């Protein structure tokens, strides 16, 4: 077969001609479609999404399975199992009614409060989402026990220290929280504890109820003019600062990550840790519990505090070494403490800390106002429903928060990225031993205007899923790659084309492997290299090794390298036709006229072994490979 130029030429047209208007404004695949398992056999979640090519719409279906039907453009999910027509959402702690209403409008809601860890583990495999507050431990065991069905954990509040984020990420389970609705409640509780402690309100109340009248015992301290150190100048810390300023306190703060201008705007000075704790009369804790903040208040740090300091904790009990606090209270370094949170909740009945006369305690009530609980319930219910529907979550804790407009414009490229990954890995001889993958994006966009995390995740998914039992999604892509010793690096090449589209082309390069299709190796260094573009909203393969091709990535693909001579298309087309294998697309690319060419043939059906052998026996065909998309 000879062609007029060295460029590629589509010689068979696709049975469905994509409309130019479909590019690039297809309805975006949802976040869940990026999050979703696409393992080919086991349905993971009962709500998944399909993309109908005819309407280019995201459709919420029940359990779906990846198939490679030519009827739809990828990602291509069809209803697999209608066993779970609505998702099951387990609510394991008390949640406001308004939030429950939102959940009930979308799924089957089961409110089971006070489950033991074992009960939770046995229940969880029938749940798609779990909503918790601070009292439920979402441990690795819980995630394991879900057997892949649990897709979203919603934390109805801020602190996610009760959720094993690492395990959730490994299992590809999205974690969302409700970070704003209880801020004011927590700040108000902090102020309530501060003022109550300073004036011995709780102790005086208890003594009166015991029939005493102890006016001189409960002389308090004034707040005005005193220095308050806010440890953790985030949402709650800032609100406490604002209120404390209103009480006439001098407020300083320590927070390694807080922007100085936010502090300045509130008239708060940001200071180093030691300065904060050594100069403050009152210290109020508002940092999250993390490995870095665990027991950060200990014997050593108490020793650096001003003698007679007063401590308020509405953050997390674990940031304090509670035994050290008891010692500091006994020695008088800490004059008083007011605590809403404890390392163990509820604390043991014989807790020395709780029993201390100069300690005021509340049972984790920071978020417990009617208003906050209503707000948190709605905030988390909407986040969970949104995640189950596949919408982007603005409060995702363990996945990149990608703005909807970015998802929208990247959607066809996301499909392309996964297909290229799938193709590239199938070109590796033996399909394994891959250590290093480079993804090269050609784009006219400034690097700051192109968020490639979704694309990288989908290339990773495309590479890993065909060769392992893992399922990969946006949550666990980087983790899974790392775990498999696969290094995915990215490169950007600025091209002089229209910046209207985010990406001009995506190239996937697998280094240091043998290929079962030698022509896929690039000329210069022998790496497997394929490149694709989005054309009219559809993913196209545009280069294999050093051969330009142009084939729509749908169905299955046969790549042949042959002597570039007339009649090749007819011969192969006939062989396929005899077996009733429908060709959807064909393209020939060559490097040197009448020498070597690559023929890329898109086929709707999977040809049987004999048909493929017949193709291999065509005299001019030097090598060929059959690839599933
Ligand atoms: N008692 C209760 O019922 C409630 C407790 N909380 C807890 O309060 C804490 C803060 O909540 P938000 O202000 O909403 O969170 P946030 O994320 O807005 O603020 C936390 C701040 O702590 C800072 N931080 C992180 N590491 C730090 C360190 N080593 N030293 C100092 N600062 C550090 C962060 O930079 C951030 O600015 C969380 O632990 C949360 O769980 C929140 C609401 C209710
Ligand atoms: O939002 C938080 O971090 C809280 O600590 C509130 O906890 P809760 O939801 O009341 O168990």
From TrEMBL:
Region spans: Disordered: 1-31
Annotated Gene3D superfamilies: 3.30.70.260, D-3-phosphoglycerate dehydrogenase, domain 3 (3.30.1330.90), NAD(P)-binding Rossmann-like Domain (3.40.50.720)
Transcription among keywords: no
InterPro entries reported for this sequence: ACT-like_dom_sf, ACT_dom, ASB_dom_sf, D-isomer_2_OHA_DH_cat_dom, D-isomer_DH_CS, D-isomer_DH_CS1, D-isomer_DH_NAD-bd, NAD(P)-bd_dom_sf
Principal EC category: oxidoreductase
Reactions this protein catalyses: (2R)-3-phosphoglycerate + NAD(+) = 3-phosphooxypyruvate + NADH + H(+)
EC numbers on record: 1.1.1.95
SUPFAM superfamilies with a match to the protein in the record: ACT-like, Formate/glycerate dehydrogenase catalytic domain-like, NAD(P)-binding Rossmann-fold domains, Serine metabolism enzymes domain
Main localization of the protein described in the UniProt heading: plastid
Pfam family, one: 2-Hacid_dh_C
Chain intervals with Polar residues compositional bias: 1-11
Pathway(s) the chain acts in: Amino-acid biosynthesis; L-serine biosynthesis; L-serine from 3-phospho-D-glycerate: step 1/3
GO molecular function: NAD binding; phosphoglycerate dehydrogenase activity
Superkingdom of the source species: Eukaryota
GO cellular component terms listed in the entry, alphabetical order: chloroplast stroma
Biological process annotations from GO: L-serine biosynthetic process
CDD domains: ACT_3PGDH-xct, PGDH_4
Subcellular location field: Plastid, Chloroplast
PANTHER family attached to this UniProt entry: D-3-PHOSPHOGLYCERATE DEHYDROGENASE 2, CHLOROPLASTIC (PTHR42938:SF46), FORMATE DEHYDROGENASE 1 (PTHR42938)
UniProt record similarity statement: Belongs to the D-isomer specific 2-hydroxyacid dehydrogenase family.
Protein name: D-3-phosphoglycerate dehydrogenase
